[in-house]
Amino acid sequence: MTSLKTLPPTLREKKRYIAFKILYPEKLSANEVVQIVRSAVINYYGIWGCSKSNPWLISYNHPKGLLRVQRDEVDFVKAALITFSQYRDKPINIVVLGVSGSVKKSREKFLKEPHLEYYKVIRMRKRNKG
């Protein structure tokens, strides 16, 4: 049995990270934010555009979050988030704080939170569970 090899960096698709803030009267869960982002992109850009831009929620800590998208589709996703105006019959406003090429820079610059290394996050989650 052969193992799968990872793609070299030259063949990987380029990504950008969009930092955003949600203005909504209620606190939203991460699953609700995923649903909001997907429906916003589908309403604005269609199903094909949603699959092409591949929006992925990296982190969400009410009211701010981080979204990963394809480099070429950043403007479409930003426009989709800005034009989304209603969720559960209540007004919602999604403010794009900025776009960056790395998770670390977008967390430090736009979300004003320190970047934790991945292994430290996993260690903290294991401690909290056990």
UniProtKB/TrEMBL annotation:
Keyword annotations from UniProtKB, A to Z: Cytoplasm, Endonuclease, Hydrolase, Nuclease, tRNA processing
Pfam family, one: RNase_P_Rpp14
Reactions mediated catalytically: Endonucleolytic cleavage of RNA, removing 5'-extranucleotides from tRNA precursor
Subcellular localization(s) per the UniProt record: Cytoplasm
GO MF term set: ribonuclease P activity
SUPFAM superfamilies found in the cross-reference section: Rnp2-like (SSF160350)
GO biological process, one term: tRNA 5'-leader removal
Transmembrane segments: none
Keyword presence, Transmembrane helix: no
Signal peptide from the UniProt entry: none
Any coiled-coil regions, as ranges: none
Known EC number: 3.1.26.5
Gene Ontology CC annotations of this record: cytoplasm; ribonuclease P complex
Function comment: Part of ribonuclease P, a protein complex that generates mature tRNA molecules by cleaving their 5'-ends.
The protein's assembly and partners: Consists of a catalytic RNA component and at least 4-5 protein subunits.
Family classification: Belongs to the eukaryotic/archaeal RNase P protein component 2 family.
Protein name, per record: Ribonuclease P protein component 2
